[in-house]
Amino acid sequence: MSARPFPAAPLLLAALCLLAVSCSSAPKKTETVTESKNRAAEATDIGNAYFRQGRYDLALRFFTQALDTNTSVDNEEGIVQSSNSIGKVYMAVGSFDAAEEIFTRALARSAGGSVELFFVSSNNLGELYLQKGEPAKALATFEQVLAPPLGAPSGAPSGAPSGGLSDVQRAVLYHNMGTAHKNLGDLARAREDLEKSLAINLAHKLAEETAADYYMLASVDSKQGDLESAMKNAQLALATDKKIENSVGIAMDLYALGVISSKRKDTAAAYDYFQRSYLVSTTLSMKSDMRKALVELISAADALGRKAEAENYRQALAELDSPP
C-alpha cells in the first residue's frame, strides 16, 4: 500500500487553478476556494469513518484526496490536518518511519500557527513514540505540549504558538501521559492521569475517548492485580465502543476481557472473548490482532479439551503467517 504524503501532482493542479482564477472575478475565486475546502472536509469525514472501522486502505484513499484538494488551493491548515490523518493511517498499519516523517513535517508547518494544529501534530508524534515502544520520549513530548504557553505552570515548548489548550485537548494529553506512565511502570501516576482524562471526557460526552480511558484503566487495574475492577472497566469500554460502532476498539476490548478472564482462571469466558475478538479482527483484516487472538484461542481450546478447534486455530495461524 502506498500513498503520497506531499504529492507533486497537486502542485501542478494548484498552478492550473491559480491560472484559471486569475481570469475570474474575486468573488468567484473565493467561492472556488471555499468549495475546495468543503470538498476536502467531506473527504476527511469519510476517511475518518473508514479509519474508525479499521478499513485503512479506504481511509488512506480519502485522506489523500483531502490532501490533494487542500494543496490545490494552498490551504495550509487543511494540508497539516490531512497530513496528520495520513500519518495516523501509517501508524495504524505499522509503517512507523513513514508516519514519523509526515508527523514531523506537519509539526514543522504548524509551529507558529494555531494552537489546534500544533497540538494535533505534537500529540500524534507522541502517540507514535508510544507505538514504537519509546514511552519516555513520548512522555517528554506530551509534557512539552502541556507546558506554557499552551498549558501547565512552567517551561514553554520551542516553536509553540501562543494560547491555551481546551479541556478536551488536555484530556487527550492526560490519557496519553497515563499510557506512557503505565508503560514506564508508574501505575499510580498512570491512574491519576487517566482519571483526569476520564472526568473531562465524561463531562463532554465524548464516547470514543471515554472508551479509551476505560480500556487503559482496565490495563492498569490488571497490572495491579485488581481483576474485578479491570473486568468492570473493560466491560464499560466494550459497551461504550459498541454504542458508537467503533470496531477497532471492540476488537481490543474483547481481547482485553479475554486476558483478564484468563487471569481470573475463567478459561471458558476467556475462550469466548478471544473468539469474538478474532472474528471482529478478521472482518477488519487486522492481522496482528488476529494473530494475538489465535495464539490465545489455541491455548484456551487446549485447556478446555477442544482438540479439534485447537487444531483448526493452529491451521489458521499457520496460514496467517505463511507468505502470500
Summary, kept brief:
The protein has helices at 9-21, 26-52, 56-72, 76-92, 96-110, 115-131, 135-146, 167-183, 187-203, 207-224, 227-243, 247-263, 267-283, 287-303, 307-321. With 324 residues, it is mostly helical. The model is unreliable at 1-29 and 152-158 (pLDDT under 50).
Strand content range: under 5%
Shape: globular
CATH homology group of the domain at 7-115: Tetratricopeptide repeat domain
Provide a count of the helices.
15
Assigned CATH architecture of the domain at 7-115: Alpha Horseshoe
Structural class comes to: mainly alpha
Q: Can you describe what's shown?
A:
The structure is a single chain. The longest helix has 27 residues, at 26-52. This protein is mainly α and 324 residues long. The chain has 15 helices and no strands. Among the domains are: 7-115, Tetratricopeptide repeat domain (Serine Threonine Protein Phosphatase 5, Tetratricopeptide repeat), CATH 1.25.40.10; 266-324, no CATH class. Helices cover 78% and strands 0% of the residues. Mean pLDDT is 87; it is low at 1-29 and 152-158. The protein is globular, with a radius of gyration of 22 Å. Helix 1 (9-21) runs parallel beside helix 3 (56-72), helix 6 (115-131) packs parallel to helix 8 (167-183) and helix 11 packs antiparallel against helix 12 (247-263).
